[in-house]
Amino acid sequence: MSPVIKFCPMAVVISGLMLGTVGCGPELKQKHEEQNRTQIKVSEPLYLRGSFNSWGTTAPLKKVSDKQYITQVDLGLGVHSFKIASQDWASQWALDSIKMVEFELSKKLEQPLALTQNSTSKEVRMLVEQPGEYEFTLKWQKGSPVVMLKRIVSEKLAQQAPLGDPEQTQKLIYQSYDKQPLTASFSVTDEQNGLRTYVHQTTQKLRDPVPQFSVYAEDEAFPQVRSGSIAFDALFALAVDEFKLDSVEKIRDSSYNKGQAIDCACFETGEKWHYVWTRDLAYAAHLGLALLDPERVKNSLEFKLSGYREGIDKPKYAAGSMSGLQVIQDTGSGGSWPISTDRVTWAFGADAAINMLSSDSRREFSGQAFEALANTIENDRLATYNAQTGLYGGEQSFLDWREQSYAAWIADDLTSMASSQSLSTNVAHYQAIRLAADLADELKQNELTNKYKNWAKALKQAINERFWLAEKGLYSSLTAGHFDTVAMAKFDWLGQSLAIITGIADKQKAQQILANYPHGPMGAPVIFPQQSGIPVYHNRAIWPFVTAYGLKAAIVGDNYRVADAAYQTLIRSAALNLSNMENLEWLSAQSVWLEKANPELSGPVINSKRQLWSVAAYLNMVVEGIFGVQVNKGKLGVKPYITTELANQFFTDTKNIELSNLTWRGKKITVNIEGPLTKDNKQGVYQLAEIKLNGQQLDNSVIEEGQLTKQNKILIKLMAPAHQVREINLVDSMPGVNDPNVFAPYEPTLSLISTDAGVKITIIDDKNGADVSYQIFRNGEQLIDALPQKSWFDATAPEYQACYSVAAIYNRSGHASHHSPVVCTQQGYVITVENQQVSSNKPIVKTDLGASLKNWGAPEDSLIIKDIEVEQSGKYALQFKYTNHQHDINTGITNGVKWLRVMDNNKQVIHEGVVQLPHTKVANGLAYSTPVEVTLAQGTYVVSLHDFYNMSYLTNNQTYIAAGGTNGPVNQFDLYGLKVMPTGSADTSSHQY
């Protein structure tokens, strides 16, 4: 049933799509009526933009008359969001508040949605239960814009699959979460020159409005598999076919180059994502793309490198070469880098490309890669390295939708996310530093080789010291932010897996991780425990590329049960969805899970077919996992990892399985594996018995490039597995149920009252039930483990400073919430910009929020705050009070990134470093920057602020359509003052958060 939407009548004057709200009340009725008779004029194109088209401009509204515009879009299952907007988002039409609209087959929206126009209007959300083509009509009724919607029955959904050869047909039958059978069937329609064309059908309802079948063919230019299983061979052919579809000559994104195509022989990110994104590309290249097309990988990696824009000199305090060539951090939280710092994942892709490229191309790329990596890691060292913890700050890698895996309050407090530290991103920093050391060694830059090796060694040690939670047998995914810094009992599969495959985790830790990380009936979730009240995307989800890294980790740690779970996840997903999907709901393995009772929790919210890193995940599973082919430092390794469960499912009807037409550095390779791959009741992994290259027996499974000829056949003989005992942590639950065994509690908040005797803490928690207790933390250390009540008195609180946070714990499962926002007993003081201590070239402007230096931060702008008196020696945090409204809080490239200097009365610099002032929401008012903590002796000090740089300074962002793009770099914000707050006694060394 459609909602009845009540709204205050609007008078609408349309001229170039600018709508003016006149007001409400009887006295304005005549004025409304006069304006409603105004001629409607639309002077710029409008687009239907939403989650169904990546908020792009692929659905222009076509003019039917002056008062009516129509477009049609394909909508799949799920909850979709939309707005009507211009290309540059300057004009946005939606609702004053979010409404949920439900569609059913052959029905239309009976009540139109009345839209308003402003940049803060909320999107409309639609629960679509039947995929198909939908018609959207924008029209004016009595001068007010409304939207009408209806479903059109599409002929393409009624298409029938072509008939395959009944002699070459196979079915895979799976069980749904509710014990119903789901079938994927595969047949061969023809076979020419040994190549096949497959017809692939499914009974599972598909997310996208497409037929329930797909047809794809093998290609003589790429590898093929022959396993005795039509289904297994077909699914590999599907991955290769989707790899080809993701290989493009032009890329595009609505936020760049005005949405126009950009020439690039690159990989696009998926069917719904037509651009090259750093982390997606890097992980996909590392998983398998580099082996199949190293030159296209190189092109794509180079596209993500950029120096400073023309006319931009290297900033005074920045590190690296004059060109500034470095890896781009894509648009993101609070204005991107260094709130997000996982641009260093680029090193995973670069390492893979270097291993695969031919000598000349490799030599050229290696030099460029070294310069870019050196500039990147040197500037990250300045911008986000914490000398006290030995770790890098910033958002988790790929888990970049804040509410999905962080505390709810973090979404509006991105300085706390910037100062927190995450496992996955720090492992990526380790990979980048280690690769830079290897390349420096090749280039005979001995000083840098030693420097980077030492950095990598220290970082590995810090990761193990700070993140490892021995009582859980897992690495923590992330720490809390500044003034807290505790490693929380939150876990993610990518971070655990990367720690294993990079060697950060030793053998004992690797085995514990593989045995302890929770798996559901359909596979491993990307995070655990799940977030309550959050829709499916990263939360409550399986991501195939993360599963592939879990498989790589399982092979390194030799846990066949975890490997079997990964094999089943990847094969099932591709088989039932006719594609390598972006993500799946964790407990149902569906590409969309509809929660009718709570539609806003449905998901995955976004999901694309042939997602690049999912395609790479499947290729990796077959090539590196099952056939064991991998390249490292110029050597080809071949060590299959075939479990008895996998063999029993697919390989028992043949004497051997074969991967053919593989190419490495111009040399063709065929890998043929002989059994026995017979039905075996033993659980485990088949062992390597013998390996031959072109008929010659080898002593081990590592082959030098010089041993290969133009055409090569590697013959591998396996023997039955020895009995193995391997553990896996299985968690059974039903989707859509808020099960404490699966979910974490909501995070509480707290309030403090300081007395002469100590500090009274009151916990505010109105979301969790009775089955919770509380942990209390002070100054980054846990004080209380399981407090049953909501108040506590701290009689040992230090007088100098006490900063508290709390977390809720489910008593039954022990799962912990995120930490609350930190509350400190000593608030310090603020020196406002109108104080005589402050001098700047910018004039003071009075605002509703107080006196400010408006739009401060151009390279020539100055700010000096002098005569800062410190009466008691100790540690102090310096934070700027500010607002940054350059762009939305969840995206952009205009994070404020500046260089702070602290000098004593003798003008000696006693501390300096980067301070961040990320985007803020207008509704939230004033915010505080990331803190710089410094130990100060009693005396008087001067603080000054100088230019550093952000991602808008780089050439690749000069076509970005929003702030910091086409109109030039932007690193500006409104400054209101400097906060000086004590954080601890002077007996500890200073550090920067």
Q: Give the termini distance in whole angstroms.
A: 51 Å
Q: Percent of residues in helical segments?
A: 10-25%
CATH architecture of the domain at 829-992: Sandwich
Q: CATH class of the domain at 829-992, anyone?
A: Mainly Beta
Q: Can you count the helices?
A: 16
Helix-strand makeup class: alpha+beta
Number of strands: 58
Q: Tell me the strand percentage band.
A: 25-35%
Major β-sheet profile = 8 strands, antiparallel
Description:
It contains 16 helices and 58 strands. Helix content is 21%, strand content 30%. Among the domains are: 26-155, Immunoglobulin-like (Sandwich); 644-729, Maltose phosphorylase, domain 3 (Sandwich), CATH 2.60.420; 745-817, Immunoglobulin-like (Sandwich), CATH 2.60.40; 829-992, Sandwich (Jelly Rolls). The radius of gyration is 29 Å and the shape is globular. Strands 46, 48, 49, 51, 54, 55, 57 and 58 form an 8-stranded antiparallel sheet that branches. Strands 1, 4, 5, 6, 8 and 9 form a 6-stranded mixed sheet that branches. Helix 5 (346-356) packs parallel to helix 9 (423-442) and helix 11 runs parallel beside helix 13 (544-557). The longest helix has 26 residues, at 359-384. It has 993 residues and is an alpha+beta fold. Pfam families: Bac_rhamnosid6H. InterPro entries: 6-hairpin_glycosidase_sf, 6hp_glycosidase-like_sf, Bac_rhamnosid6H. Keywords: Plasmid. Residues 393-505 form the Alpha-L-rhamnosidase six-hairpin glycosidase domain. This is Esterase.
Helices, strands, pairings?
Blueprint: H1 29-36, E1 47-50, E2 62-65, E3 68-75, E4 78-85, E5 92-94, E6 100-103, E7 113-114, E8 116-117, E9 124-128, E10 132-141, E11 144-152, E12 169-175, E13 181-192, E14 195-202, E15 213-217, E16 224-226, H2 230-245, E17 247-251, E18 262-267, H3 278-292, H4 294-303, E19 305-306, E20 326-327, H5 346-356, H6 359-384, E21 385-386, E22 391-392, H7 402-405, H8 414-419, H9 423-442, H10 446-467, E23 468-469, E24 474-475, E25 491-492, H11 493-501, H12 507-516, E26 518-519, E27 527-528, E28 541-542, H13 544-557, H14 560-577, E29 584-585, H15 612-626, E30 629-632, E31 635-638, H16 644-650, E32 656-664, E33 667-674, E34 687-693, E35 696-697, E36 702-704, E37 711-719, E38 729-730, E39 749-755, E40 758-764, E41 772-778, E42 781-787, E43 791-794, E44 803-810, E45 823-824, E46 829-832, E47 838-840, E48 844-847, E49 850-856, E50 863-870, E51 874-883, E52 896-904, E53 909-917, E54 927-928, E55 932-936, E56 939-947, E57 973-984, E58 991-992
